[in-house]
Write a structure and sequence with these properties.
The chain is mainly alpha-helical. It is built from 14 helices and no strands. The longest helix has 30 residues. The radius of gyration is 19 Å and the shape is globular. The two termini are about 30 Å apart.
Length: about 375
């Protein structure tokens, strides 16, 4: 996920230098496929985690991610080649790493489960925090090809070591049904599924377009645009841990609803009406702090509602919602910039992102009320 969060550096370079004639909506597909395919393969990844050693699954994922980026370094002459390698192939490997990584803490912790998952999920922010400026410097000094190769080697090495520390707490008994789709009849699942779709539809627009907005609309430097993504990742690292702690005090569902509301307001109240450096930085901080709650708290709410016995496959089903939202979100935002904003007006894309995050807030709030109508209750 650190690589996914740092894709904005590639997006900006591809748009301004390498593929200046390609529409923004086309270039966003590379980063979109990374996240979308990661979630599309959530179900098979969850099944593999239940039936095989999670360490082996995660190691295989790291190998695929590393190979994807190295192969992409030899395919950077055409966007469609990067979609297949840096996007699709990388996403398959990321799924095999991310699903076991976020499902393990929920198995091992009960009282501090939200905090444990928040710490695990904060790794994506930490990865993006150092990888974004590192990628920017590698691209400017060595070019995109070597940036991809070096990142691929790092990804494989780090995941090879990290995978050794994963261990399942539960042994799941095999059953005839590979995936139990009866959960689709649970209205609570449908609400969190719908909220996941709307939230991820909004999620990547600031990460992908905020640097380009700062450079093209606000007239800031390339370094300032890159630094905004670094700020988002830094705030996200802090936010995912802080929201985990807040969830322990105020309840998982209460905190999830609050995070999506504040993330929406950061886009609509700080990004939409302003172009000044200070408000862009404020937007990056607030959005980074609270948007991460969407990613880190959903596994915790899942464990709270349905237990931990089948958490890997249930999270896999929920990540299909993430896939749907990712496939709709960033490409649609890019298309709005190109076709409605004439390539220079980002307001339609900003409104699109903020409104969908607000809709996600409404779905999560309905879920919370369906569990208990007492608004002061810790849930």
């Amino acid at each position: 996920m650190g690589c996914v969060n740092s894709y904005g550096s590639y997006q900006t370079y591809y748009h301004l230098h390498q593929f200046p004639n390609e529409p923004t909506s086309t270039l966003t597909w590379i980063g979109t496929l990374q996240f979308a395919v990661m979630n599309l393969f959530g179900i098979p990844s969850g099944i593999l985690c239940e039936r095989f050693d999670s360490r082996l699954v995660a190691f295989l994922g790291g190998l695929i991610m590393g190979l994807a980026l190295v192969i992409a370094s030899f395919c950077d002459s055409a966007v469609w080649k990067l979609m297949l390698t840096q996007g699709f192939m990388f996403g398959i490997g990321a799924s095999l790493v991310y699903i076991p990584a976020v499902s393990m803490p929920a198995q091992w912790f009960t009282k501090r489960r939200a905090l444990a998952v928040g710490v695990a999920a904060s790794g994506t922010g930490i990865g993006g925090l150092w990888l974004t400026p590192a990628t920017d410097h590698m691209i400017s000094g060595l070019g995109t090809a070597w940036a991809l190769r070096i990142t691929g080697i790092i990804v494989f090495a780090v995941n090879s070591v990290a995978s050794l520390f994963l261990r399942n707490r539960l042994v799941v008994q095999r059953r005839e049904k590979i995936v139990d789709f009866s959960i689709l009849r649970d209205s609570r699942f449908l609400l969190i599924f719908a909220g996941g779709i709307c939230g991820t539809t909004a999620y990547f627009t600031p990460l992908f377009l905020l640097p380009s907005f700062a450079i093209e609309v606000s007239g800031k430097s390339n370094d300032f645009g890159t630094n905004l993504i670094t700020i988002v990742n830094a705030a996200s690292t802090i936010g995912r841990i802080a929201t985990g702690q807040a969830a322990a005090s105020f309840g998982n569902m209460n905190t999830l609803s609050a995070c999506t509301l504040l993330a929406s307001l950061s886009v609509l109240a700080l990004w939409l009406p302003f172009q000044a450096s200070g408000t862009l930085v404020a937007c990056a901080i607030v959005y980074g702090m609270f948007s991460g709650g969407l990613i880190s708290l959903i596994p915790v709410v899942t464990a709270e509602l349905w237990g931990i016995q089948r958490i890997a496959t249930i999270i896999g089903l929920l990540y299909v919602a993430y896939f749907t939202g990712a496939m709709v979100g960033a490409p649609s935002s890019g298309a709005l910039v190109d076709n409605v904003g004439g390539g220079a007006d980002f307001k339609p894309a900003i409104i699109f992102s903020g409104v969908f995050m607000m809709i996600a807030f409404l779905f999560f709030t309905i879920l919370r009320v369906s569990v208990s109508r007492s608004l002061l209750k810790k849930i």
